[in-house]
Each structure stands twice: as structure tokens, then as C-alpha cells.
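pasting for ref
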Amino acid sequence: MIEQTSLLVPLSEEQSLHLRYIAQTDSKGPAVFFMHGAVENGKIFYTQSNKGLAPFLASQGYRCYVADLRGRGQSLPAISARSEYGQTESILEDIPAMLSYIEQHCGEFPRFWVAHSWGGVLMNSYFARFPSQVKKVDACVYFGSKRSLHNRHISKFFQANLIWYGLAPLYAKKHGYLPSKALKWGSDDETKKSHRQGMEWAKRKPWIDSDDGFDYAATLKNMHLPATLHIAGVKDKALAQPIDIKKFMEESGQGVQQLKLYGRKHGHQHDYGHIDMLTHKHAVHDQFKDLLDWFARHDRH
């Protein structure tokens, strides 16, 4: 029987981070850490009725910990005009706090990591900041993760150039944060700082932290990150085309990396896009199956 529990990770007197723990009763399987992307929360990986990638992995014996970054999902308090944190805090504070909590909760550091979209950038940024942790992770699988947009598809100019670079800063200035949920641009809101920092990197600016000048690209250049499978959907034209993912792979060190494209012409059951690569009913037979194989192949225990 698969059970879901909400865990609250204390971050400060004012703030706590939410982790959704999804596992079979009394499971002792490997721990998996999940990270969502921008204007999102952890619900991209599960439903309360046990659909989605995390419940699927739980059914295979894994213990799943799905993150909600600060202010997102069920983390408290929700993002508002008073929220001054950004992705630097996600990398330096949120992710370390959650990993520490997971280690205490299940007795081991999560050996398998899964990300969607911008979550992969945050995970690799974490590896750059905390290189001693890399050896604790056996494998990663990133769904539609890219840092900078290099494709020139018309939908990219609409979703990125017009909305993300053009309108979003105006809304963020007006409200003090980006009300993406109300605008129907995503499933959750984004802080003003987080949007600004993400926008700079997506515009093909150097992979450097705007807070302290830390150079992620230079740090990762000679590092060997955990073996990473990159999943792309044939209908993901705006946000993570193969050219965008390959550029991210080139920036992500010397470790084992593989890119797979999912669609009918590649023998799969559906032409997947940026969101339904995780939510479509056929994903379990396509990319979810390949994820299991990737984890098994690179399991060092």
C-alpha cells in the first residue's frame, strides 16, 4: 500500500519547507529526491490519488521525497510581495535543509535525484556549490531541463521573449512578486528575485550567481556529476528542445550523460510535451520505464 505524508522542514522561525513523502508502508528502499521547476511546485510529480512519477517509483519500492521550494506548494508562508529570497537561497539554503532532513528521516542520503525543467539547473548548481556531496548520488534523471534557451522556434519567442522576458518583469514590479498562478502561466508563483535570476540565466548570460559572483560553469567544467539521463519531448518546442538540453549538458561537467527524445516517431506511445512528459498516462510505459532502467544500471549498492 502506497502512503503519502506531508513533512515540514523548519528553515527559520517564519518559514518551513514542505516535503511530500510517498512510499509503500514500511519500505526500506532507496531514497529519491525530487525537484520541481520555475512557476511550479512538487505536484508535477504526484497526485493525491497516487498517479504520477513519485507514486510509480514508490510502487517499485523506492522512498520518494518531493520538494516544494520556499513559498511554493505547501511550504509556508506562501510567496508574497514580502518574499525577498531567490534561487541563490534555493541552492544554498532550501536544498541543503531538505537533504539533511531526508537523511535523518530515512537514515540515508537520497541516492537518486529527479528534476523537472529548471529544477535540473538548481540541482547541478547545488553540486557545484557542494562538490563533496556528488559522490553520495548514484544517478539523476532530468525531465526537460535546460539553462539557457538556444532554440529559435516561434513558440519560444512567445513564451520566453514576450511573456518571461517582457511581461513577467512588469507584473513582478507591479505586485512585488510574479503572480503566475493567477495569470495561468504556471501552477505556482515566483518571487521577484527568483524570476530575475532565472531570466538572466535563460537569456544565455554566464552561469554566474548574481549575489556573490560564484561561477557555476567554471566550477562544473572539470567535475564528474552523477550519471544523468536527460528526457526531452518531441512537442516541447519552446522550453527544452534538444539543442537547449545539449547546451546544458555541455556546461554540466565530464560525467556520464545521455539525452533521449520521446515521441511516436521514436517508438513511444505519445508525442510528449514539457508538462505531460510527467503527467501523461502512457509515460509509465515510456520514460518512467527508462528511468527505472537508468537507476538500476547506475545503482552502486
